[in-house]
Structure formats: C-alpha cells, structure tokens
Amino acid sequence: MGILSVTILLPALKDPQSRIYYSGIGYPALQRVAGKPIKVQTVPVTTKSLEDSLAAPGESVPLQEVDVRPLVSGQVEKVYVAEGQRVRRGQPLLQLQKAPFEDRVSTARNNVATAEKTLQVLQSSAPERLLDLQENVRTAQARLYAANTRLKAIDALAEREVKNNVAAAQVRLKTAENKLQQLKSLTQQGAVSKFQLYDMQDTYATRKKELLAAQQGVLETENKRFINRDFNITRENDLISAQQALELAQKTLDRELVDARLRLENRKIELQEATRDLNRTVIYASTNGLVSRVNIHAGEIVDSRSNDPLVTLAQNTVFKAYIDQARLNAVKVGDKATVRLLAYPGRTFSGRVIQLNPTVETDATKPRKVGIDRQYTYSVWVAVNDLQMPPGLQGYVDFDQTNARLVIPESSVTHFSAGEGMVMVAQAGKAAVKKVRVGRKFDNQREVLEGLKPGELVVLFPGALHPGDLIDSQFADFFEPDHQQDASKGSPASAESRLSPATPPEILHHTPTFPPHTHENQSAQLSIAEGR
Predict the structure, then answer these.
(1) What is the rounded distance in angstroms from the CA atom of residue 384 to the CA atom of residue 353?
(2) What's the total number of domains in the chain?
(3) 374: number of CA atoms within 13 Å, CB side?
(4) Residue 380 in domain
(5) Same domain, 179 and 327
(6) What is the mean predicted confidence (pLDDT) over 185-210?
C-alpha cells in the first residue's frame, strides 16, 4: 500500500491539474514553506492569426431607390417601360400629351414678339419726342427774351415822356399862371385892358390842358408797361412749363424704357418656362437601374403636386445581411464575404462589405414583417460581384475573417465579470498579478484585448500561487501543433472557429518540463489513492 501511495500520490502533488496540488500538502505549499522556488509551467503571450467564420441571413435590397415624379401636370399619353425592365440613364420612361404645352409655347413666343416691338417703338420715338420738347424750351426762351426787350423799351419811353412832355407842360403852365397873376394886378390898376386878361386866361387854360394831356400820355405808357409785364410773366410761365415738360418726358421715357425692357425679359422667362414644361412632358430615367414599380398607365392624369411616384427605379442592388447583436463589432467595411442565394442553388458569389448600420433593430424599432427574422440584429450591406440581382432575393452570407490577435491559454485566466480577468505572470523570478481584459474564446485559448504584451510569460495554472512567490519558470508546449491536436480531442473546437498557429521564434528553443495530463487521468489517480 505504501508503494502504491507513493506511486500515485507523489506525482499528483506536483500535477497542477490535480486537486491535491492546490492543498496545504501540495507542491506549491511545500515549496513556499521551504522557501524554495516553485516550478511552474509558463506560456508566452503569443500573436496568432485567427480565422473567424460568421454567417448571417439576409435579402437583396436596392442601395438607393429613385422615385420618379412628374414636374408638370397632364394626361399620360405613353408608358415606355414595364416592371422588371432595366433602364439606362436618359432613357424615356413615359410621355404626357404635348398639345397644351405647345399652345403655351406659341402664346409665350407671341408675347415676346409684342414686347420686342413695343420696346423698339419706344427706343425710336423717344429721341424725337425729346427733340420736340427741347425745341419748345428754346422757343419759350426766345419769346421771353423778346418780351423782356419790349418791356425795357416801354420803360425807357415812359421815362422820356415824363422828362420831356410833362416837365415842359408844367413849365409852360407855370409861366402862364405867372403872367395871368401879373395881368390881374395890372387890370385892377387899369394899366391893361380886360381883353388882354381874357386872352391870358385862355392861354392859361390851354397850358393846363396841355399838362393834363401830357400826364394822360404818361398814364397810357404806364398801362402799356403793365400790359407788357403781364405778357412777360406769361412768357416766363411758358418757359417753365416747357422745361417741366422736358424734364417729365425724360423721366417718363426712361421709366417706360425700363418697364419695356423688364416686360420683354419677363416674356422671355415665360417662354423659357413654357419650353421647359414642354420638354418635361417626356420623363427620362435619371440613373441606371431596375424598374421595380410602375404606378401609372396611359390615359391617367398626373399631378405635379402629388407625392406618389409614377415609377420607382432600384439602383445598386446589394445583399443586406442581418447579424446577431452579439457579433456587433465582428464585421467592418471592406471585409470580404461569400453570398449564397436561394434563387441560385449550388452557386456562390463573392462580395465586399460596403456599409453597415450598428443600430440594433428590435420589435420596438422596426415593424414585424413576414420573412427573415430581423429581431435583435444589425444591418450589413454587401456588394455582390458579377451579379445583377433584383430586389427581394433571400439567402445568407459568410464572412471569413483572419486577424492577428494576442492569445493565452484559457486555464491561465481567472475570470471576473464584464470581460475582465486576472493572470499570473513571471517577473524577475517571482509571481506577479496582472489585470487583463479578454475577448472571445477560440478552442481552449482566450483572446487578450488589454493588459499584456507579446512575449510576457503567463503561468499556465496559477490557482495555487500567491503574488510574490518565488517561481522557476518552465516553458510548456501549449501552442505546439501536436498539443493542439491532443487538446482538441478532449475539447472540440467550435464549428465557427479555426486556429492558424504563428508561434514567435523566441519560444522555439525552450524544452517542455512537464508532460501534459488529462483531467480524466488525474481523477482516476485520486480515486485509487483514496481507496487504498
């Protein structure tokens, strides 16, 4: 029994895959008590090329849908395309009746001709009208000058009459008056006869009449002066009226010319619009594509204000895949893909990811439809090479991805929550704890996202170690192909994952110390030991 216990228990004490290894009498505890280094298996953090296959269902959808709507209203005369037909850019799709639009073009042309004629008449008659008005101003200026000259002459004549006739008559009257006074004195004295007095009285009366006549002539001259002043004012008013008429005509003609030019431009715009509407009676394809829907027939009336499309063109049909949200970051733009369609059994088509929408679709974000279950998925668009697909084809797509990732053995990780964990690394002959963030599991290896660098040595089975323990690092052959093959027997690989080893050269010269043991053998050895 003692021999059997030594044969079974002693190897188990040093076997990190046995339960007794982690007990108080296990190899690490004994070495720690003795102050000696603990021999442990270590594996370097390795970069490997991992092929990750991902499949997702989907359907062919147009990347762009072009809704063709009319720009003018009218009755449909012809429809040139049918659903399912492929069209090229510039190809006619349908035609409206042209007669009403041709009438509008003719009316617009007549309006343009009328506006041009009106402008020509204004441009030709405006100079003549201005010349006539300018001549009227010159005539009024000449008449005013003549009136001023006449007024000056009359004023000079009146001054001469006052100086000559009235003044002379006053002198003669004064002389006659003096003589009459003298004769009156002489007659009273009896020196002269009364007949002489009577003659002088007659002379005095005559001189008085002469003075009155001279004064009357001055009044007539003054009257003429007043009349001539009124005539002069009339001539001034005539000149002002002629000048105002010229100024008003200049402004009016300029405004009429501007209005005529503007009216002509408006008529030309109306002609352009009428011609444009006539050209719009034929509706052309704005892009290459597939006619997916035709919603109009000959004889129907179309309204340019309606939002309903007449024809819908599907452009750049791609395969839209719906990927489970658990693989949200598994696909990137530019990844290659293989598409299989139910309409083409046994055939595969290569493609490339051109667009993705990371918004997860659920029942709350998208109404349920018959067909592919899109619940809790996000969308990926794949451009398929060498195939013109109509919309609505169902199938699925495979994404084959090869990425270089850091990996460590699954047994070296102590897992926490939210993708975080802990590993024990060999540093300067001692065990040290490092916090890591891990990703997906490939076979019995774990992807490292953060916390480790390539070449760092992690302890393969760290459960019995304490931080700061002295360790003797022994390299294990965990990443060797033979070990992978043996390990795959006990832990089959995922159907979606394959490994391509890429062992760095720094670990090739190490020799493994401990042979691998399976959990089944360890359990059998423990059972025998406990039974004995």
Answers:
(1) 9
(2) 3
(3) 21
(4) yes
(5) no
(6) 76
Residue type, position 70, single letter: P
* Cβ density class 136-157: b for 16+ within 10 Å, e for less: bbeebeebbeebeeebeebbee
Nearest CA to 391 out of 172, 67, 83, 41 is that of 83
Which amino acid is it at 119? L
What distances in angstroms separate CA 336 from CA 58, 216, 311, one per listed residue? Answer: 16, 129, 34
Query: Residues near 234 by Cβ (< 8 Å), separated by ≥ 6?
Result: 147
271 shares a domain with 387: no
Q: Which of 378, 400, 422 is the last residue of a domain?
A: 400
What digits encode the pLDDT tens for the residues 123-161? Answer: 888 787 888 888 888 888 888 888 788 777 766 766 666
**Is residue 328 included in any domain, yes or no?**
yes
CATH number at residue 41: 2.40.420.20
* 156 and 219 co-located in one domain: yes
Strands 38-44 and 471-475: parallel
Print the domain residue range for 327: 54-97+291-400
Q: What is the DSSP string of 496-523?
A: TEEEE----GGGTT----SPP--HHHHH
d(CA 305, CA 70): 9
283 within some domain: no
pTM of the predicted model over 0.70: no
What token pair was written down for 69? 């709507």
Cα–Cα distances in Å, from 455 out to 43, 458, 475, 476? 9, 9, 12, 14
Rounded CA separation 162/169 (Å): 10
What per-residue confidence (pLDDT) applies to 383?
94
- How many angstroms separate the CA atoms of 147 and 138, rounded? 14
Looking up tokens 């891990």 gives 438
Last residue of a domain, one of 223, 244, 278: 278
Question: Which residue in 296, 291, 289 sits closest to 310, CA to CA?
Answer: 296
Contact 395, 319 (CB under 8 A): yes
